Structure formats: structure tokens, C-alpha cells
């Protein structure tokens, strides 16, 4: 593993879509994202890899194994970013995977299983409000009827965005692969949270990926004059909403030992005038955790609270579950293998849950999947100041390399392994 080459390559990717002071913007299926993918393809070809782009725009680069019919060991992440995003989210995972292949080529390591690097399409929800689209398509979770309704903020449909990349909505389903094609999948990603930095650990090994349950709550009161309506005669929707917001915190705290968190990120007050008692409030509540029963316990506490607020304040409260996604457990065998390699490499590590979604969560019900986190300074992400040191990236890459070699099984010197790759110099 060559740290200087790794850093330089990361730097080159980060010139694509960069605007001074405004971070990196490579929204999915835009010319910037396509340029990053083109550059990735060029670098993979230089390493003698075969590259294809599937029907959803995932780029799949393959380093042939000595036994090409064996399932591949895959790794990768994504090159798309949010609007004004950072330099590490996603990109680190792709660049690290590329460095592993370069290092194997340097060391003339031939593996029995083929290796694949995947640069997933549209991981971020920043463009269409839906995340991990590429890995959903690859694992058969993409639903055409849903995708018909996707539009970005400029009114460009998902179908039109695909067409700008010479892809077709009619063919996306053919990006689906069969689980037998892959032996395992590994993703290296920045943590996007403060845990590793706080605990001063090099590596986080994810054991579960939390999933959101989302609620929409509407509190209906009665608008009236803020000067002439006595306090006892009001039906102030915002006061009811304020109780709910505080209740969301209480409910999540009561489930803290199971790692559940909850946030009210949207609060819209109507009519929103200084001299009118609020008539209605809409709240959007995001509840996340790795234990489905714990998320449901939070929802139950909230339902009880809605009843009590209704009775005390005479407000109408309507709530609707917008989505309830299932948390994903990662394979014990991949986590244990990563921990073994950490010990051997003398990297400090901890097991943790992932609070954010990743392509790894779709790959996890496909094949044994390992998700490696490296520290994010101040836990900051999706922001131009997102930062992870090259030392931490190098440690993560080293771990990824060891895990990939183990899973792809190196040919022993006693075996006559044909060399099926050739670097283009
Ligand atoms: Zn990411």
C-alpha cells in the first residue's frame, strides 16, 4: 500500500466538481459525476482491470482471478456527492479499493477469486430524495413504478437523468445480479459521526446499519387574534407541537441503551404570523436505530403522548408512518475477519452500529458484507470541511487490503497460478 499514491489519487478525484470554498459537488448522473467515473475507469484499465458500466450506471471493474469462474470478492463505495459535500464521503472507499489493486499488482499477488471494485451510482439522496439507488438496482430492490415519480429540484426526472448518461429506465432492472456472483463485499467509509474520534480508535467495524422510521404529524388547532384571545380560550397548535418535540427527545432517551435516536427536523407553522395564534403545525420525525422493537417503542410512547395532548389542549393530532425500514445486521464472519486483521496490523478498533445508510446495507442480504469506518474529524460530514487524515485513510486501506486478500485467497507460491492481469505502463 502506497500512502503517497493514495493521497495523490484522492486529490485528483477531488478536483472534479470542486468549487473554491464550496466543497465538492458531483450530484448523481451529472457531468461531474460522469467525469469522476470516467477517470476511475481510466485508472482501473491502467491496472489491467476489465471495466463495465451496468444498466443503472454502476461502474464495475474486475481484476481477474486465477479461477475466473469463482465468485468475486467485491469492494467499493460511491463517487457521487451531496450539494457542496466533502472530499471523503464515498470517494475514500473507491480510491482505497483502487489502491489495494495497485498494491496487489505491485506485489504480484494473484488471487484465486476475482476481485471487483464497484463505484455505485446515486448513493446520495441529494438529487432524487432516494439513496443507494445503484446498489438497490444491483440487488433487485429497485422498483420501476416508484422510480417513475422521482424528480430532482429542477424538475428533471430520474428517467431523463439516466438518458443524459446514455442509460435507459427500461433496462435498469437488468443491472440486477445473482448472489452467487459474489463471495463477499467490503466497503471502507468515513464514519460521519464522532464516536471513533472520541474513543481514539483507528477503525470502526460495523455490525449493524440502522434504518429510519419516519412519521408525519399534523397538529390542528384554531387560529385567533393574539391580542384578543384569552390564554384559557386558545387552541394553540404550536404549544401541542412543542410538547411533541420534547416528547420525541424523552422517548428516544428512554431507548438510548438500545442505541435509538430521534429527531424532529421539520416544523412548519401555519399561518406563521406574529399576531395570530398558530392554527396548524406539521412535524416530520425521523427515528433511527438498529433494533426494530426499540424504534416501535418510541412510536408507541409518542402515540400515548398524542392522546394526552388531545385531551388536555383540545387539539386534533393526526399521525402517519411515512416509512418503516428494517435495520440491517452485517455478517459475523466478515466482522470477525476484520477484527482479526486489525489485531494483526495493530490497529485499534471497536465494533459499532452505523447510524447512516450505505451501499453495504443493500449488499448485506446478498453476500457476507463488511463495513469499515475510519474517523471523521468532529463527526462532520456532507460539508466542505469534512476531514479525515491521510494516516487514518491509509490504515483503513491497509485493513481493506488484508481482508480482500484473505477472502479472495492468494495463490500460494507452490501453486502454478496463471497471471491473468497485466498492468499498462
Ligand atoms: Zn457515503
What portion of residues is helical?
25-40%
Number of continuous helical runs:
12
Unreliable spans: none
Please name the CATH topology of the largest domain. Aminopeptidase
- What would you call the structural class? alpha/beta
CATH superfamily of the largest domain: Zn peptidases
Order of helices and strands: HHEEEHEHHHEHEEEHEEEHEEHEHEH
Q: Strand tally, please?
A: 15
Describe it.
The structure is a single chain. The chain is α/β, with parallel strands linked by helices and 425 residues long. It folds into two domains: 3-209 and 327-424, 3-Layer(aba) Sandwich (Aminopeptidase); 211-324, Alpha-Beta Plaits, CATH 3.30.70.360. It has twelve helices and 15 strands. The protein has helices at residues 3-13, 31-46, 91-106, 133-138, 144-147, 158-164, 195-199, 237-254, 292-313, 332-345, 359-363, 390-408, and strands spanning 50-53, 59-63, 72-78, 115-120, 182-190, 203-209, 211-220, 224-225, 261-270, 276-277, 280-289, 316-324, 328-329, 349-354, 369-374. Helix 3 (91-106) links the parallel strand 3 (72-78) and strand 4. Helix 3 (91-106) crosses helix 12 (390-408) and helix 10 crosses helix 12. The mean pLDDT is 95. Zinc ion (ZN) binds at residues 78, 89-90, 123, 189. Residues 78, 89-90, 123, 189 line the site of zinc ion.
Give a quick set of tags describing it.
425 residues; alpha/beta; Aminopeptidase; Alpha-Beta Plaits; 2 domains; nine-stranded mixed β-sheet; four-stranded antiparallel β-sheet; 12 helices; 15 strands; elongated; binds zinc ion
Amino acid at each position: 500500500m502506497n500512502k503517497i499514491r493514495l493521497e495523490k489519487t484522492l486529490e485528483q478525484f477531488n478536483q472534479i466538481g470542486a468549487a473554491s470554498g464550496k466543497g465538492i459537488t458531483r450530484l448523481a448522473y451529472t457531468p461531474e459525476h460522469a467525469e469522476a467515473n470516467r477517470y476511475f475507469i481510466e485508472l482501473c484499465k491502467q491496472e489491467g482491470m476489465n471495466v463495465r458500466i451496468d444498466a443503472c450506471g454502476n461502474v464495475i471493474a474486475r481484476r481477474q482471478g486465477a479461477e475466473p469462474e469463482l465468485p468475486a470478492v467485491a469492494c467499493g463505495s460511491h463517487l457521487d456527492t451531496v450539494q457542496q459535500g466533502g472530499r471523503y464521503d464515498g470517494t475514500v472507499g473507491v480510491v482505497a479499493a483502487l489502491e489495494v489493486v495497485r498494491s496487489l499488482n505491485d506485489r504480484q499477488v494473484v488471487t484465486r477469486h476475482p476481485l471487483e471494485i464497484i463505484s455505485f451510482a446515486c448513493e446520495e439522496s441529494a438529487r432524487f430524495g432516494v439513496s443507494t439507488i445503484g446498489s438497490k438496482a444491483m440487488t433487485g430492490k429497485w422498483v420501476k413504478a416508484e422510480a417513475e415519480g422521482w424528480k430532482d429540484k429542477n424538475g428533471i426526472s430520474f428517467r431523463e437523468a439516466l438518458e443524459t448518461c446514455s442509460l435507459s429506465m427500461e433496462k435498469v432492472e437488468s443491472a440486477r445480479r445473482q448472489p452467487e456472483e459474489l463471495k463477499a463485499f467490503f466497503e471502507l467509509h468515513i464514519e460521519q459521526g464522532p464516536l471513533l474520534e472520541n474513543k481514539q480508535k483507528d477503525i470502526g467495524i460495523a455490525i449493524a446499519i440502522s434504518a429510519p422510521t419516519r412519521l408525519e404529524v399534523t397538529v390542528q388547532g384554531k387560529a385567533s387574534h393574539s391580542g384578543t384571545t384569552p390564554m384559557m380560550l386558545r387552541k394553540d397548535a404550536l404549544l401541542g407541537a412543542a410538547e411533541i418535540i420534547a416528547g420525541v427527545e424523552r422517548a428516544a432517551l428512554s431507548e438510548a441503551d438500545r442505541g435509538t435516536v430521534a429527531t424532529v427536523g421539520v416544523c412548519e407553522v401555519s399561518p406563521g404570523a406574529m399576531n395570530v395564534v398558530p392554527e396548524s403545525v406539521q412535524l416530520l420525525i425521523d427515528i433511527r436505530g438498529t433494533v426494530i422493537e426499540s424504534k416501535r417503542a418510541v412510536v408507541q410512547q409518542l402515540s400515548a403522548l398524542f392522546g394526552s395532548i388531545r385531551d388536555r389542549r383540545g387539539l386534533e393530532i393526526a399521525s402517519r408512518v411515512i416509512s418503516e425500514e428494517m435495520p440491517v445486521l452485517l455478517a459475523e464472519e466478515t466482522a470477525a475477519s476484520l477484527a482479526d486483521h486489525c489485531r494483526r496490523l495493530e490497529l485499534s478498533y471497536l465494533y459499532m452500529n452505523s447510524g447512516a445508510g450505505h451501499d453495504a446495507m443493500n449488499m448485506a442480504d446478498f453476500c457476507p458484507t463488511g463495513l469499515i469506518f475510519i474517523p471523521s474529524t468532529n463527526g462532520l460530514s456532507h460539508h466542505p470541511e469534512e476531514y479525515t487524515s491521510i494516516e487514518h485513510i491509509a490504515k483503513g486501506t491497509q485493513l481493506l487490503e488484508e481482508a480482500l486478500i484473505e477472502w479472495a485467497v492468494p495463490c500460494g507460491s507452490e501453486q502454478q497460478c496463471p497471471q491473468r492481469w497485466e498492468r499498462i505502463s
